Automatic annotation (TrEMBL):
UniProt KW Disulfide bond keyword: yes
Subunit record text: Homodimer.
Signal peptide: 1-23
UniProt name for this protein: Alpha-galactosidase
Species classification: Eukaryota, Metazoa, Chordata, Craniata, Vertebrata
Organism the protein comes from: Cyanoderma ruficeps
Length: 412
């Protein structure tokens, strides 16, 4: 028996070593990256005369960097300030290099990167594998090396590489590979964020083993919107495809369910709690897209919640999965380091009040999470100790409509 157990452990360790060896070997994103990204909240406003506070400009990123450093975001772990689409001038320069719109980014990206670095933060930028970005600015097609070198020379720390306007699936895949290699050749540490599987999926089943060799995280599904229906659709898609996508995630490579929209207009408090809890269960990169100059104390407190962030950033780096679905309830778990588990109970019913969900603790961790006993701590919606439970106990959890209760289960 002991020999069998030893063999099993050996096989598991060998499999983990192979998986680790196959992740993009740039040493980055050992836990899901965290930061701020402009797209969902600020889209593509380029008329700074009409809308100086919201247009995509140097000023916007300087102000976000200031807030991130001054208001506790950086200290909570949010380190990347990321530019999305629409930062560029409409054409490349005489040497064929990309350039920022000179009116909106008077210091250039180099100047902005210096500023962001002076605040102890990192700068992310955006480009596209095809001939044009999704919003119609110059894309990187045929310029992968030059663009990677340009970004590195500016001091960029992350590249979000979109997949619009590629002429074929072959060119799309080749472009994602070439840009990864080009970034590596610059010698600068640049996190590589891809949308490769999302653009492939309608026509071809993505090869995640390959994608993980080239990307630090990758989008699988549609853009997040500031709405509960959007959050729900992302969770439903993830649960439906968990057999293919969960096992591939780990240190160096993550599934990216898109930005956190907490602090905007579309989510209620309960729904915000659900997004935060479930993004932690999914080991998702945490990029907020909101206005840090105007954010409610509640949203800020939720986004900076140290216990949830610790679950998201757990060093074991295993993505969670849905265990069970019963009427309107969903039970999710995520294995954590030191034999702990994060457990989420989500109530999808949108009529009536709080509902109770009762489940057996033997469901958790393949029966091992509470064997022989465990201590349970509620992390969200508020932190609270629930005490010690035996293996065959049941747990009854009250969850508000569209809300989630997030628990941490520790071995005793
Ligand atoms: C695509 C991406 C979004 C955003 C926009 C920019 O839709 O999925 O995240 O980058 O392009 O145009």
């Amino acid at each position: 028996m002991a020999a069998v157990r030893w063999m099993l452990r050996w096989v598991a360790a060998a499999a983990a070593a192979v998986a680790a060896a196959l992740a993009l070997d740039n040493g980055l994103a050992r836990t899901p990256p965290m930061g701020w990204l402009h797209w969902e909240r600020f889209l593509c406003a380029t008329d700074c005369a009409a809308d100086p506070r919201r247009c995509i400009s140097e000023q916007l990123f300087v102000e976000m960097a200031d807030r991130m450093a001054a208001d506790g975001w950086r200290d909570a772990g949010y380190e990347f300030v990321c530019i999305d689409d629409c930062w560029m001038a409409p054409t490349r320069d005489e040497q064929g290099r990309l350039r920022a719109d000179p009116k909106r980014f008077p210091s250039g990206i180099r100047g902005l990167a210096d500023y962001v670095h002076s605040k102890g933060l990192k700068l992310g930028i955006y480009s596209d594998v095809g001939k044009k970005t999704c919003a119609g600015f110059p894309g990187s097609y045929n310029h992968y090396d030059l663009d990677a070198q340009t970004f590195a020379s500016w001091g960029v720390d992350l590249l979000k590489f979109d997949g619009c306007n590629s002429d074929s699936l072959e060119l799309l895949a080749e472009g994602y590979r070439l840009m990864s290699l080009a970034l590596n050749r610059t010698g600068r540490s640049i996190v590589y964020s891809c949308e490769w599987p999302f653009y492939l999926r309608p026509l071809q089943q993505p090869n995640y083993t390959e994608i993980k060799q080239y990307c630090n995280h990758w989008r699988n599904f549609y853009d997040v919107y500031d709405s509960w229906s959007s959050i729900k659709s992302i969770l439903d898609w993830t649960a439906l495809h968990q057999d293919t996508i969960v096992k591939i995630a780990g240190p160096g490579g993550w599934n990216d369910p898109d930005m956190l929209v907490i602090g905007n207009f579309g989510l209620s408090w309960e729904q915000s709690v659900t997004q935060m809890a479930m993004w932690a269960i999914m080991a998702a990169p945490l990029f907020m897209s909101n206005d840090l100059r105007r954010i409610s104390p509640e949203a800020k407190c939720l986004l900076q919640n140290r216990e949830v962030i610790a679950i998201n950033q757990d060093p074991l780096g295993k993505q969670g999965y849905q265990l069970f679905k019963d009427r309107n309830f969903q039970l999710w778990e995520r294995p954590l380091s030191e034999r702990a588990y994060a457990v989420a109970v989500l109530n999808q019913q949108e009529i009536g009040g709080p509902q109770n969900f009762t489940f057996s603790l033997t469901l958790l961790g393949n029966g091992l999470a509470c064997n022989p006993a465990c201590s349970i701590r509620q992390v969200l919606p508020a932190s609270r100790d629930w005490g010690v439970y035996g293996w065959i106990s049941s747990l009854s959890v009250e969850v508000n409509p569209t809300g989630t209760v997030l628990l941490k289960v520790l071995p005793v």
